């Protein structure tokens, strides 16, 4: 049963695991398990929580998968499985540790059966597999949330574009395209400290600064996507991540700004798969 694989998506505060049937191009839904994580825990505790979630997912199906493929944020030495996340307020205990070997040993799997991939690349791969980019082969993907994830395709394979640190405006791209920017900019305009985008949408829509902050964001996002397109020459783009939940306030404006910059209407899609995109992308990427 080589076509049954374990797909895993690890974030800063959660882990999701689910078996994927590659032949049918679908999830085995009864195996879906999502668990909250403490990313500041000791390394052994983090690995234990990951392993328990993966094992719980496996219990929902009679056949044990031969391969486990994991979407994980960087920086990381993905080939060798060494975590390089540092000074990002998540997983400090995993820095420079071989988490591939640690997890394989805990799960009693051979190291060669465990694969780590960049989460933004997995997101793009999932959307190409059965999501909003189904039918496209050359594309770019952006995940908009706490940070900025970017990915592109080359000859059908998805790769981390690592453009979060690209020079942009008066800083780097992530300074302007992230939850952090919304929090900072809204405070500059209003003097009010918001927690995140959800807080902004839920409690501040009546503010005169609400439209301003989303108008600025849509323009910044369009300018960044335009630069990204010029670097990679894709046929389409997809955006996902938590910020996309507020699409009603910026997505059409972003498309309009992008069309002006491009000189034509470029296909800018919203993720169809949501959080499951990285999970499915990981499962198809071994």
TrEMBL record:
Top-level lineage group: Bacteria
TM region positions: none
InterPro entries reported in the protein's UniProt record: ATPase_NBD, ROK
Coiled coil, from the record: none
Gene3D superfamilies named among the record's database cross-references: 3.30.420.40
Record PANTHER family: BIFUNCTIONAL UDP-N-ACETYLGLUCOSAMINE 2-EPIMERASE_N-ACETYLMANNOSAMINE KINASE (PTHR18964:SF149), ROK (REPRESSOR, ORF, KINASE) FAMILY (PTHR18964)
Similarity comment: family membership: Belongs to the ROK (NagC/XylR) family.
The name this protein goes by in its record: Transcriptional regulator
Species in which this protein is naturally found: Pedobacter yulinensis
UniProt lineage: Bacteria, Pseudomonadati, Bacteroidota, Sphingobacteriia, Sphingobacteriales
């Amino acid at each position: 049963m080589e076509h049954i694989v374990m797909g895993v998506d690890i974030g800063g505060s959660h882990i999701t695991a689910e078996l994927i049937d590659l032949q049918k191009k679908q999830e085995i839904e009864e195996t879906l398990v999502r668990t909250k994580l403490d990313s500041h825990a000791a390394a052994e505790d983090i690995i234990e929580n990951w392993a328990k979630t993966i094992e719980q997912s496996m219990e929902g199906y009679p056949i044990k998968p031969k391969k486990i493929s994991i979407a994980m944020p960087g920086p990381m030495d993905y080939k060798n499985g060494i975590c390089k996340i540092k000074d990002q307020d998540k997983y400090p205990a995993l820095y420079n540790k071989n988490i591939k070997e640690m997890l394989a040993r805990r799960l009693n799997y051979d190291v060669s059966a465990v694969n780590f991939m960049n989460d933004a690349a997995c997101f793009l791969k999932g959307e190409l597999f059965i999501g909003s980019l189904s039918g496209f082969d050359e594309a770019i993907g952006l995940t908009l949330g706490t940070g900025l994830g970017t990915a592109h395709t080359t000859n059908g394979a998805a790769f981390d574009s690592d453009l979060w640190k690209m020079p942009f405006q008066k800083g780097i791209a992530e300074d302007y395209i992230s939850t952090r920017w919304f929090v900072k900019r809204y405070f500059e305009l209003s003097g009010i400290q918001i927690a995140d985008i959800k807080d902004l949408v839920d409690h501040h829509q009546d503010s005169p600064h609400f439209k301003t902050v989303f108008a600025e964001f849509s323009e910044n996002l369009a300018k960044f996507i335009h630069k990204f397109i010029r670097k990679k020459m894709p046929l389409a783009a997809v955006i996902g991540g938590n910020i996309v939940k507020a699409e009603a306030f910026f997505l059409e404006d972003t498309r309009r700004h992008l069309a002006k910059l491009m000189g034509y209407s470029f296909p800018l899609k919203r993720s169809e798969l949501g959080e499951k995109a990285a999970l499915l992308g990981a499962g198809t990427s071994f």
